[in-house]
Amino acid sequence: MIPTGPAADGPLTDDGLVQLLTPAGERVEHPEYDAWAADLDADRLRAMYRDMVLTRRFDVEATALQRQGELALFAQSLGQEAAQVGSGHALRPQDHVFPSYREHGVAQARSLEMTQLLRLFRGVDHGGWDPAERNFHLFTLVIGSHTLHATGYAMGVQRDGLVGTGDAERDAAVVTYFGDGATAQGDVSEALVFASVNRAPVVLFCQNNQFAISEPTTRQATVPIAHRAPGFGVPAVRVDGNDVLATYAVTRQALERARSGGGPTFVEAFTYRMGAHTTSDDPTRYRTSAQEEHWRRRDPIERLRAHLDRTGELPEVFQAQLASEADAFGEHLRTTVRGMGRPSGPSMFEHVYATPHAVVDAERAWFEQYEQSFVDHEGHQTGGHR
């Protein structure tokens, strides 16, 4: 855990980061977190590696689809695969995830059908998947608001008696993912207050990728982001977010604390956004190629690959099968996205509220009347408004 006193090293310091794998893939010991990664045998490490590789392929394909005009927008997760896959593998089936809009690796780790994520970015519907199927809730585009949703949900889990029973198949926790920029929003502070005073079983997982859109972390904080949490009475830990083993161990401990009734934890995964904030962003305007190269040498996938190579646990047959799987995955993504139908205009008013809503009903009626005004008397659309 981090100290509760002030820190003079700034928000980008790597002092105190939990690390189990060096950038070269060498395993290092940690007195507290080694035990939390002890269950990661070679098969599980290869499963993590697979999820990271497929998440990277998803990112590459979706970015290309956006450039081709098949998606309206896409938020990249390039470089953040370890933080997402490591924490995702620490979850149990009954745990709940409240993502922002960049947690593609967590979705992959939860075995979500990945093409469903792209329905949102294509504009086909508001979400694209049933949150109850994998306990993976819909993406949230309003920065920071979902931390309150997650905390409230965790309080509900607590009140339903699903915390601290000692039954590993029943006790549940909630994790919410957000970026360093979201911590400047009041919603995150409010979530910390509610989580703390209610000892809510929630893990607040901050992916500090060093940029809030175009604002660097150094313009958002003067101390590490995680140092905010102890002021609310929430224990916090900083972890090397490009180290999938360390991220897994830290998250596993935090989730176990939550499930057992120990309350919330704030995790800051210190990583780097190798891609753009979204495909409408140009990161060359606010960061240097030297900085990008520095972090490219710390690529989370290459780090795990080096470790598996070092231990002789990455056979060529596995690599060939994974390469073939990634190619098939890419083709599946391209074909599925291009085959997505066009929704009707009025469908945007569906599923806004769980029950009928007078304002939404009025807006739907107005929209349908507006669309009808572009249809001539013979039933042919003029097409001028399309």
TrEMBL record:
CDD domains found in the cross-reference section: TPP_E1_PDC_ADC_BCADC
Cited SUPFAM superfamilies: Thiamin diphosphate-binding fold (THDP-binding) (SSF52518)
Residue ranges constituting the Dehydrogenase E1 component domain according to the UniProt record: 50-317
Keywords linked to the UniProt accession: Oxidoreductase, Pyruvate, Thiamine pyrophosphate
Keyword Cell membrane: no
InterPro entries in UniProt: Alpha-ketoacid_DH_E1_comp, DH_E1, PdhA/BkdA, THDP-binding
Pfam families the record matches: E1_dh
One GO MF term attached to the UniProt entry: pyruvate dehydrogenase (acetyl-transferring) activity
EC number: 1.2.4.1
Protein name: Pyruvate dehydrogenase E1 component alpha subunit
Native species: Cellulomonas iranensis
